[in-house]
Amino acid sequence: MGLINPAFQTLPELFSSVFTHYRTNDSKFPFARKINGKYESITYHAFEEDVRTFAAFLKHSGINSKERVAILSENRPGWYLADMAILNLGAITVPLYPSLPANQIEYILNNCSAKALVVSNTLQLGKILSIWQNLPELTLIVVMNRLDEPMEEAIDLNQAKAEGKRVLAEKPWIINGTLVEPDDVATIIYTSGTTGVPKGVMLTHKNICENVKSCSSVIRLDDSDCGLSFLPLSHAYERTGGYYLLFACGASIYMAESVETITLNMTEARPTIMFTVPRLFDRIKTSILKGISKENTIKQKIFYWALKTGKQYHKEINEKGKTAQLLTFQHTLAGKLVYNKIKSTFGGRLRYFVSGGAALPQKVGEFFEALDISILEGYGLTETAPVTHVNQPGKIKYGTVGPAVDKVEVMIAADGEILLKGPNIMKGYWNDKEGTSEVIKDGWFYSGDIGEIDRDGYLKITDRKKHIIVTSGGKNITPMPIETLISESPYVDQVIVIGEKRPFLIALIVPEFIKLKEFAATANITFSTNKELIQEKRVFQIYENLLQTVSRQLATHEKVRKFLLVETAFSIENDQATPTLKLKRKMISTKYAAEINKLYNDLNMVYNTE
Predict the structure, then answer these.
(1) Rounded to whole angstroms, how far apart are CA atoms 353 and 211?
(2) How far apart, in whole angstroms, are the C-alpha atoms of residue 269 and residue 33?
(3) Tell me, what CATH number does 371's domain have?
């Protein structure tokens, strides 16, 4: 069936058409959340009433068209509710990552002149109260959780809805008649900011609606589908794909309890589609191989036979469009013996994963393909609403992000930068004409990514333009392919390669400590901390051998000469990763500056005597 209403031009039109379609159908539902250990659904009718009452409350509280209302919350029903209510008033949603510290929240709220804020709980409320005196334009705070005692500074969501219901009874017209145009700004999403201060990306209703329509023509969904949501709704990827797209098609959205419970929640929700990031696949792959290693010899042989069969089967399907009868039979048998059992851990109904946010290593994609699990890798940026490319079901080419979606034009500049044009390109950066003019020129958006298009029209991302390393010898090196090669090792969790204005490259590696501890157990290595473990000579040799192997695939100037093992992962908490898990190279390099300089000084002595 696809989109309930393919003609919508604004998000309120989208919401209204879906609610109208399902208002009297309680067998279908838009959202489900876990309560007391069990998933419980929310009907379209009940949710629509909540949206209306909360919108009436906001309007009565002085929130008008084009004013900014921020949401500071984890994924939960209140997030969707607040967003719909805000947009139905013609106001602008400003999503905030719940992991952000108070000082960054303060900057964003002041930069966009937010008039109201919806927070999830008292923890997030505490952040706001700590900076309250610095937020002169913020006049209203709503807390999703029930407040134990009345507060002068805030009202809880239940109270707000009750007040909205009273207002609607007295003034039933209060939320009617708001005219929302396709070119009106729907949301301001602040970029994570791997360098410098965040910029507010203005996306219009048209930007998002056109992107939803383009995605729906690639990923065919209807009301028999359901997704499991765990990526933050603060990010454009989850918001467009895992929220607006699913809602527009009548699919149900189950909310994961947390990142740690995804495996359990998949078996409960039994999703048909999941929007996720590459790190999840690394963890699933590690878990699968760890489980197989504990099985008996016969089961291990069956698994690796099935893996080999799957690789050959999909290789022939991709190259010839068909396979020999014997291979087809073997693939069917492998499905019964292996693939279906693995798929059952995802709930047994999964049609495909959609991967975005970072590069999916080609070998990881091919591993899952061999197990008959499809991953549709895509590409886009917050500034493009966000999807510009995605691999299509049945036409997947791992190592690429697929062809452009409908209405998106692509051009590769002389220096390799990817340029994009289409109805999904942002209106600009909030209050930043200079920043806007730097990235939008003659209608083309300059992505900052380096890439190439193959003969089938599939785009391959090779690096970020700003990440290109220029060594002291004048060599230009793109670190991403090198990092990809290193990260393919099961002993590597995270890696960055550095060497700007240096004579050669070095790598900072966060080991995969689960795998490393398994090695330590078999090698009789005793240790009490991760720091002790990475100082062990035999552990060091693992990474020495890895880099020697990787170096054989690289040009002389691309070889990584030395490495530093890091005991603490690069994370949001230590400010070495953005909320979308992109690594902050500058922060990491600064944090480990002393160790990096020592490596270079030690190597320089050797290098200069060679």
Answers:
(1) 19
(2) 10
(3) 3.40.50.12780
Q: Is the pLDDT of residue 609 over 50?
A: no
Number of H-type helices and E-type strands within the chain: 22, 26
**Cα–Cα distance for residue pair 40/17, rounded to 1 Å:** 24
Give the Å distances, CA to CA, from 12 to 112, 244, 543: 22, 11, 54
CA distance to 97, 145, 580, per residue, from 79 (Å): 12, 12, 18
Q: Kindly state the DSSP code that residue 429 receives in the 8-state scheme.
A: E
For 300-333, write each residue's pLDDT tens digit: 999 999 999 999 999 999 888 899 999 999 999 9
When mean pLDDT is compared across 117-121, 251-255, 257-261, the lowest value belongs to 257-261
Enumerate the H helices of 270-324 as residue ranges. 278-293, 297-320
Asked which of 438, 464, 490 is the last residue of a domain, the reply is 464
Same domain, 121 and 42: yes
Secondary structure of residue 331 in the 3-state scheme: helix
Expressed as residue numbers, the domain containing 65 is 11-217
> Are the C-beta atoms of 197 and 354 separated by less than 8 Å?
no
Q: Whole-angstrom Cα distance, residue 25 to residue 208? A: 27
Query: Could you tell me if residue 260 is inside a domain?
Result: no
Tokens 């009548």: give the residue. 250
- Residues 495 and 356: their CA atoms lie apart, in Å, by 19
Separation of alpha carbons 205 and 13, rounded Å: 10
CA distance 108 to 127: 13
Count up the domains in the chain and report the number: 3
Residue 194 pLDDT > 80, yes or no?
no
pLDDT tens per residue, range 199-218 = 999 999 999 999 999 999 99
How high is the mean pLDDT of the chain? Answer: 93
Query: Is 505 within the bounds of a domain?
Result: yes
Q: Which residues pair with 203 in a beta bridge?
A: 187
Whether residue 259 lies inside any domain: the answer is: no
Report the range of poorest mean pLDDT among 260-264, 351-355, 511-515, 575-579: 575-579
Same domain, yes or no, for 35 and 179?
Answer: yes
State whether 511 and 400 are in the same domain.
no
Cα pseudo-dihedral 92, 96, 101, 104, rounded to 10: -40
Angle made by CA atoms 483, 487, 490, in degrees to the nearest 5: 165
Q: Are residues 473 and 452 in the same domain?
A: no
Residue-wise pLDDT tens digits, 355-405: 998 888 898 999 999 999 999 999 999 999 999 999 999 899 999 999 999
**Distances in Å between the alpha carbon of 42 and those of 49, 56, 526?**
11, 20, 52
Beta pairing, strands 140-143 & 38-42: unpaired
Helix (H) or strand (E) holding 79: helix 77-88
Task: Name the helix (H) or strand (E) containing 264.
Answer: helix 262-269
DSSP per-residue string spanning 151-216? -SS-EEHHHHHHHHHHHHHH-TTTTS-----TTSEEEEEE---SSSS--EEEEEHHHHHHHHHHHH
Length of the chain: 610
Residue pLDDT, tens place only, 495-553: 999 998 888 899 999 999 989 999 999 999 999 999 999 999 999 999 999 999 999 98
